[in-house]
Write a structure and sequence with these properties.
Strand content: 5-15%
Number of strands: 2
Number of helices: 4
Shape: elongated
Largest sheet: 2 strands, parallel
Order of helices and strands: EHEHHH
Structural class: mainly alpha
């Protein structure tokens, strides 16, 4: 669970259109992504979206730098958990006294 350096390369073309209706109508026939022209265009948001989509779903090292530990069991838990008293021990003592 360390740092994984992942080079990203995005080669994407964009074309600006006047309205959302034009973008929807031409989307299937267009090879480039269609963006609606707006007075306050947010280029950083578009770049962020493209970079996030280019990231691998599960980034992994080419070769694992540390051996992974794949073990689980009650031995590990028994060492860490404090000994709990048996709630029926008192009942067992009362039964022996009678």
């Amino acid at each position: 669970m360390g740092v994984v350096l992942t080079p990203l390369e995005v080669d994407q073309w964009y074309r600006f259109v006047a309205s959302e209706e034009i973008a929807m109508a031409e989307d299937d026939a267009s090879e480039e992504d269609l963006l609606v022209m707006a007075p306050q265009f947010d280029l950083l948001a578009v770049l962020e979206d493209e970079l996030l989509m280019a990231l691998p779903l599960v980034p992994m090292h080419e070769e694992c730098p540390q051996a992974a530990v794949f073990q689980a069991g009650e031995d590990d838990l028994a060492d860490q958990a404090p000994e709990k008293p048996n709630p029926f021990a008192l009942l067992a003592q009362l039964k022996k006294e009678k």
